[in-house]
Design a protein that fits this description.
Layout: H1 6-13, H2 17-25, E1 33-34, E2 40-41, H3 44-60, H4 62-73, H5 77-106, H6 124-131, H7 135-143, E3 150-151, E4 158-159, H8 162-174, H9 181-192, H10 197-230
Antiparallel strand pairs: 1-2, 3-4
Length: 240
């Protein structure tokens, strides 16, 4: 089996040799052999691990990467695959919400998914269910100045309108992209003032970001399959 020096792996992946040592310290890859002088000697298995690890980082982030590689190191390829499948389902839902919000920005009279139509006045619980976000997130966005709901003059409870629903859906997608808070406030407030052209353009850019993450995730899955094949964990699926 071919052996690689750390510098060879690092150059192939465009990273530093210290990064390789960090991955080892995190227990994400098997420990390499050592030569007579104590220098690390990596194998094809290590190269597959490192390729997979880097792709997973880009597509799914560090926490998911650690869980996936833990499953693979335990020999459970199916657990690893179902884990990334769950994450892809989350991204698919995010894409649906982005599409829905963009449609609402273009035509505020459209119903939400499930043919639900916002009422003229809604409680925080109702708007949270309608927009599929937790009430705690809505309260947090209000504290940040992204939302300014009305208040019931009798009991002081928050009252939300269909415009707030559109803002909440907009915030939900924008918070996953690289926008400073002041910039987000400007975009969200444009919906409140019915000046949605700027928000629409930003949202279209957000969709491009979602498409990019989707591609990165598929690249990561490809490297996962390659790693599982290298380890002999990829067997032919049984016929249905």
């Amino acid at each position: 089996m071919r052996r690689y020096k750390p510098i060879q792996i690092a150059r192939a992946l465009g990273i530093s040799t210290s990064a390789l040592r960090h991955y080892e310290a995190w227990d994400l890859v098997p420990l390499p052999e050592r030569d007579a002088n104590g220098y690390r000697l990596y194998s094809e298995v290590h190269l597959a691990y490192f390729r997979c690890l880097r792709a997973l980082f880009a597509g799914f982030g560090v926490p998911v990467t650690r869980q996936v590689l833990r499953h693979i190191r335990e020999g459970d390829a199916d657990a690893a695959l179902w884990l990334v499948n769950r994450e892809q389902a989350h991204l698919h839902r995010e894409k649906e919400i982005a599409d829905e919000t963009l449609a609402l920005l273009r035509d505020p009279t459209l119903p939400l998914s499930g043919h639900r139509k916002p009422k003229s006045r809604m409680t925080i619980g109702e708007v949270a269910e309608l927009a599929d976000v937790p009430t705690s997130a809505i309260r947090h966005w209000e504290k940040e100045g992204l939302l300014t709901p009305d208040r019931d003059p009798e009991n002081g409870y928050r009252l939300f309108t269909p415009t707030h629903v559109r803002q909440i859906l907009l915030i939900r997608t924008l918070r996953r992209t690289v926008y400073f808070l002041d910039r987000m406030k400007e975009i969200v407030k444009s919906v409140e003032h019915h000046s949605i052209e700027q928000a629409r353009k930003v949202y279209e850019n957000a969709l491009v970001s979602i498409h990019g993450r989707n591609r990165l995730q598929y690249e990561a899955v490809g490297e996962m399959v390659a790693l599982c094949r290298t380890l002999g964990l990829w067997t032919k699926a049984p016929e249905c």
